[in-house]
From TrEMBL:
It comes from Shiella aurantiaca. Residues 1-25 form the signal peptide. InterPro entries: Alginate_Permeability_Chnl. Keywords: Signal. This is Alginate export domain-containing protein.
Length: 428
């Protein structure tokens, strides 16, 4: 009841705002986002071992959003969210599960220059370094963002410092999976056939002791998208990571991709690509005297969208050895409503793992296939069916714990609805 009352109050306030819009020079929109995801796991994120049975769950994300936009003065966004697995609470529980998902205000000083403050997303360059995880739905940043955008040039400067509460004396910032401080610069320019971005990022994480030491890691790199011809395009990025990690090691890591897309006919596109994230050999990783790490850490990228939909890498399993992903993707737009996508990956460790006898293993991890069938029912409703399967090697089995793997696949559906309850646009 508590969360229901909060929702009613939220809608009432939206309604009061809507009644006032006739005299306001601003756009307003009240909308919702529902994401319902039934999933039958036969090894999703963690392969099945002998004696284990397949699992099934349905996860639902529900959001209520208010957007106010006045490019001449003030814009604001407020989004409340409930995220749950069906049946994970008693039907008689009276628990407030609604949380603030987004809450920001943006002051427009000129048409090109603005400042955005509050809880917001940071999504850049196809989610490879900074992105959103739609399946998780909990990633947000409490930051200040300075924005300048004019004539195809964009500059975003982001900064944030986190504490557990109203800190009067410096205290440990532990127990929360987040950075202590972050600074982020994104420069982007659109040319005739090239879109190019430059990124400089610093992430400061607090050491897990009483020293209040913050170790800082930097990413510097570029992301580029080139239109070679009407049927051929190239996407490429490179990020280099420097600084110190939580083990007080010197970081010297890399992360890059090259993706060539060919569109022979308009409904069909074919992509051949490589995606590489560096890592440490098992010998170096386990050596307590090792002072250097080649592991590239990217805590805020969209790991589900990249490195395969089975989510074996950079999620539950410690991917210290890095991953090389060579994949081939085919997309076919059957009609305006129906699209079929199939992606086949072959994974390799970036550095060597060892078996139980401490002997170096082959780098090949195996082949994964991801099939998606997406159907647009209407403008506000989309349904996706998916199946992913992994054919792992002995190295993959060692990577996931060393136990015999009986199955590595899953089936799922994603139903996304985005109804608009109210929308008003100012007269130009």
């Amino acid at each position: 009841m508590k969360s229901l009352k909060a929702t009613y109050l939220f809608l009432f306030l939206f309604g009061m705002i809507g009644l006032n819009l006739e005299t306001q020079a601003q756009d307003a929109k009240v909308s919702a986002h529902y994401r319902i995801n039934p999933l039958h796991s036969r090894g999703f994120r963690d392969p099945l071992n002998p004696g284990e049975k397949p699992g099934f769950y349905t996860m639902q994300i529900s959001r209520l959003n208010l957007e106010l936009s006045n490019k001449g003065d003030l814009s604001a966004g407020l989004s409340i969210q409930d995220r749950r697995f069906w049946g994970d609470e008693s039907t008689r529980d009276d628990k407030a599960t609604v949380t603030i998902y987004r809450a920001w205000v943006q002051k427009h000083f000129t048409e090109a220059f603005s400042v955005k403050l509050g809880r917001q997303d940071l999504i850049y360059n196809d989610n490879y370094l900074m992105g959103e995880r739609a399946w998780v739905g909990t990633l947000a940043h409490d930051v200040a963002k300075v924005i300048y955008e004019k004539n195809g040039f964009k500059a975003h400067l982001v900064a944030g410092v986190n504490t557990k509460g109203g800190e009067l004396d410096r205290d440990l910032y532990l127990g929360i999976n987040n950075y202590k401080n972050m600074q982020f610069l994104w420069l982007h320019k659109d040319f005739k056939k090239l879109s190019s971005s430059f990124i400089l990022q610093n992430l400061g994480f607090e050491n897990a002791d009483s020293s209040l030491t913050v170790y800082n890691m930097q990413n510097i790199g570029t992301h580029n998208e080139l239109t070679i011809s009407n049927s051929l395009s190239l996407t490429a990025f490179y990020y280099h990571q420097l600084g110190k990690n939580g083990k007080n090691q010197n970081v010297d890591a890399y992360y890059y991709s090259a993706q060539l897309t060919y569109t022979p006919i308009e409904p069909l596109s074919i992509t051949a690509a490589t995606l590489v994230s560096s890592g440490d050999s098992q010998n170096d990783y386990e050596d307590p005297t090792n002072t250097r790490s080649r592991y590239h850490d990217k805590p805020f990228f969209n790991g589900h969208e990249h490195f395969g939909l089975m989510d074996y890498f950079f999620f539950k399993n410690n991917t210290y050895m890095g991953v090389n992903d060579y994949f081939f993707k085919v997309e076919y737009q059957v009609n305006p409503k129906l699209k079929i996508t199939n992606t086949t990956h072959e994974f390799f460790t970036n550095q060597v793992m060892n078996n139980e006898l401490n002997q170096a293993m082959d780098k090949n991890l195996g082949i994964e296939n991801d099939l998606l069938i997406a159907y647009k029912v209407s403008n506000g409703l989309k349904v996706t069916l998916g199946h992913s399967i992994m054919f792992g090697t002995d190295t993959f089995q060692q990577f996931t714990g060393g136990k015999t793997i009986t199955e590595s696949q899953y089936f799922y559906a994603v139903i996304v609805a985005n109804p608009v309850f109210f929308q008003s646009k100012k007269d130009n």
